[in-house]
Amino acid sequence: MTRAEASGPQETGGRRFRSSWLAYSLVAAMVGVVIGTVVWALGTATEPVPRPVADPSVPALPLPTFVGTTPRPAAAPARATTTASPTVSPTSASPSPGSPTPSPDRNVAASGRPGSAPTRSPAPDVVELAPLPAEEERGLRSVDGGADTTVEFVNQRSGQVTVYWLNHWGYRVRVERLSPGESHRRDTQVGHPWVVTDGDGRALAVYQPVAAPARAVVR
């Protein structure tokens, strides 16, 4: 066996070992570089940055004016003003004897002519209806076509009375019951008869309305 043949496997193993060690060394160096870079970056990030100190000798710059804002003008100092009070002459305070005095009437001030007080139409006279005999109730009934009017029924008796309207067939239609001293006004027509009875239903009087407002006093 020659020397070259005997040393072949050993040289091959040595070359492999040297290659592996070189690769591991490169990897370790790269890892060290990366770790050092990270440590340096963290150290510079956490290091406080000193703030600049304002120099008192340098004048401060004015603040910028934003768009849309208008500076307000400074208010002018108030000036003291004096107002002279008007003097009233003694002759102007009281009207002269020859000057006309103002009229309290508003109509005179508006038209220049003396106005008259508003006139009210006099209230229509109330007619007292004459009571008709109770026996006439049998032949009475309402007939349409007459003028509209009113009748006020007044109870001056000591007991209650009942007011009835006689309809178009002559039947009683009860309208109101009045205690002593009470009254009741009713709208009706000329041609519509009315009858008033006592508490037992007996007819006391019959009333025929007229064109003027009327009052029927039950005694």
Low-confidence stretches: 88-95, 107-116
Give the number of DSSP strands.
8
| Shape label | rod-shaped
Chain oligomer state: single chain
Biggest beta sheet attributes: 4 strands, mixed
| Alpha-carbon Rg, integer | 63 Å
Distance between the termini: 176 Å
Give the spatial strand order of the biggest sheet: 1-8-2-5
Strand content: 15-25%
Q: DSSP helix count?
A: 3
Structural class: alpha/beta
Overall pLDDT, averaged? 75
Helicity level: 10-25%
- The helix/strand order is HHHEEEEEEEE
Brief account:
The protein is of the alpha/beta class and 219 residues long.
Task: Please give a handful of descriptors for the protein shown.
4-stranded antiparallel β-sheet; 219 residues; alpha/beta; 4-stranded mixed β-sheet; rod-shaped; 25% helix
